């Protein structure tokens, strides 16, 4: 019997995801037409023997989360429960705090997945590796280029045995090009070292982080407190993947992840991809259209377009590399490229909403999305355009490389601006 835990964080997290995380908790933001963590749940539900999926975070349970859990349980015929931390407990504290719930029923092992990653989740392959040679911790690893590796947990492995010999979380200088994907398979014994860290922290009281922040004694950082501490002791192993993988930290990376998942749908969910039908809109490449959306036949969509519930797309609209969220309206002949159009927003006729993609270098197979900061040298960097919820864009204007906060009613064109 197996279980899975998804670490969903909480409201103070996901700051790079604003203004989109104002409206829905980041783990529920739709990527390729379904909530971000539905991809995780689908992958877990496919592993034979999966008994229960637990979401651990510090969000107050709200209507959206409750509805999502109910729908997921029905669809996957599995208990999917939310366990709320009383305070942010870090990536390991919640696992230890809720250990009784995780171990209830005696699972052979449990997966732990960061919510903010996009992957093809090679969970069955990890399970096979674990069953072949059981160890307390199995980490999924992938490669990154030298510069970008510094943004992740870096793993030095024994190439023959795949034992993790050395682990450094977000090092300041190059350590290894093998990085931690935030996808793990733990055996029940893995909770013992977490308990040791917990006991030590209780004795030491409040601790100061390397960043100078105080963290409560219940906090456990899986990466520094456990992986770094136990590396080289025959307890942690890495399973390397060449499959798709990306972090989802910002809106730009959500758009990139959407492209990766839409590509995956060719194999996993061909029914979710829109097809060109006589009298329907022109479809180019991978496009998701929610069944309730109304799309005019002369619109041209794709590649990498995802259209949410109740969206209206008018005649002559051109949409490419974009996500249009629930209830938005694109009036006739608008052009939306490399953008996210927020819930209930309206883009007026002949308006152009355009962003600049920040995708990984296609000539570097080890490249990932840059952990985009919005500014460099005091200047706003060109990035995808984001319209927050219920924004109104008038007819015949250009909105380029801009972030428009919710409920704004614009009256003219804007370029390279954050519109507050
Ligand atoms: N329940 C809970 N979840 C948390 C907490 N803090 C973070 N998380 C969740 O844990 C995951 C990791 O979050 P971060 O702490 O922001 O770490 P990171 O910068 O994403 O880096 C981690 O993931 C990388 C891969 O994406 C790894 O490379 C890196 O080593 C590390 O594990 C996210 O899904 C986040 O929601 C917490 O206090 N409680």
Automatic annotation (TrEMBL):
The keyword Cytoplasm applies. One of its GO terms (biological process) is GDP-mannose metabolic process. GO terms for cellular component: cytoplasm. PROSITE patterns: HEXAPEP_TRANSFERASES (PS00101). GO terms for molecular function: transferase activity. The keyword Nucleotide-binding does not apply. It is found in: Cytoplasm. CDD domains: M1P_guanylylT_A_like_N. Residues 3-194 form the Nucleotidyl transferase domain. Its main location: cytoplasm. It holds the Pfam family GMPPB_C. Keywords: Cytoplasm. Residues 283-419 form the Mannose-1-phosphate guanyltransferase C-terminal domain. InterPro entries: GMPPB_C, Hexapep_transf_CS, Mannose-1P_guanyltransferase, NTP_transferase_dom, Nucleotide-diphossugar_trans. Regulatory subunit of the GMPPA-GMPPB mannose-1-phosphate guanylyltransferase complex; reduces the catalytic activity of GMPPB when part of the complex. Mediates allosteric feedback inhibition of GMPPB catalytic activity upon binding GDP-alpha-D-mannose. Together with GMPPB regulates GDP-alpha-D-mannose levels. Component of the GMPPA-GMPPB mannose-1-phosphate guanylyltransferase complex composed of 4 GMPPA subunits and 8 GMPPB subunits; the complex is organized into three layers, a central layer made up of 2 GMPPA dimers sandwiched between two layers each made up of 2 GMPPB dimers. Belongs to the transferase hexapeptide repeat family. This is Mannose-1-phosphate guanylyltransferase regulatory subunit alpha. The lineage of its organism: Eukaryota, Metazoa, Chordata, Craniata, Vertebrata. The gene is GMPPA.
């Amino acid at each position: 019997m197996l279980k899975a835990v998804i670490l969903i964080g909480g409201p103070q997290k996901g700051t790079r995801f604003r203004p989109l995380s104002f409206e829905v908790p980041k783990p529920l933001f739709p990527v390729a037409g379904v909530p971000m963590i539905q991809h995780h749940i689908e992958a877990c539900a496919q592993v034979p023997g999966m008994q229960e999926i637990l979401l651990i975070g510090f969000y107050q349970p709200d209507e959206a989360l409750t509805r999502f859990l109910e729908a997921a349980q029905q669809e996957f015929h599995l208990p999917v429960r939310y366990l709320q931390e009383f305070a942010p407990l870090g990536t390991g504290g919640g696992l230890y705090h809720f250990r009784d719930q995780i171990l209830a029923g005696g699972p052979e092992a449990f997966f732990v997945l960061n919510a903010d990653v996009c992957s093809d989740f090679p969970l069955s392959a990890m399970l096979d590796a674990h069953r072949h040679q059981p160890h307390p911790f199995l980490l999924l690893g992938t490669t990154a280029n030298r510069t970008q590796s510094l943004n992740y947990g870096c793993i030095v492995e024994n190439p023959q045995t795949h034992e993790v010999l050395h682990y450094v979380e977000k090092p300041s200088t190059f350590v290894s090009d093998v990085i931690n994907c935030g996808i793990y398979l733990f055996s029940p014994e893995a909770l013992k070292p977490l308990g040791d860290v917990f006991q030590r922290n209780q004795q030491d009281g409040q601790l100061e982080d390397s960043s100078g922040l105080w963290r409560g004694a219940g906090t456990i950082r899986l990466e520094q407190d456990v992986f770094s501490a136990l590396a080289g002791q025959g307890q942690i192993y890495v399973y390397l993947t060449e499959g798709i993988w990306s972090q989802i930290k910002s809106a730009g990376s959500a758009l990139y992840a959407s492209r990766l998942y839409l590509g995956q749908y060719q194999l996993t969910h061909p029914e979710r991809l829109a097809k060109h039908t006589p009298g329907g809109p022109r479809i180019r490449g991978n496009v998701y259209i929610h069944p309730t959306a109304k799309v005019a036949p002369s619109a041209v969509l794709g590649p990498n377009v995802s259209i949410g519930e109740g969206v209206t797309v008018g005649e002559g609209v051109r949409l490419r590399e974009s996500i249009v969220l629930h209830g938005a309206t694109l009036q006739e002949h608008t052009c939306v490229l490399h953008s996210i159009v927020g819930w209930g927003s309206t883009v007026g006729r002949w308006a152009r909403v355009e962003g600049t993609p920040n995708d990984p270098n296609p000539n570097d197979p080890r490249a990932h999305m840059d952990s985009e900061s919005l500014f460099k040298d005091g200047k706003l960097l060109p990035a995808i355009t984001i319209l927050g919820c219920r924004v109104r864009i008038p007819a015949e204007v250009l909105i380029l490389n801009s972030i428009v906060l919710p409920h704004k009613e614009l009256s003219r064109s804007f370029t390279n601006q954050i519109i507050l």
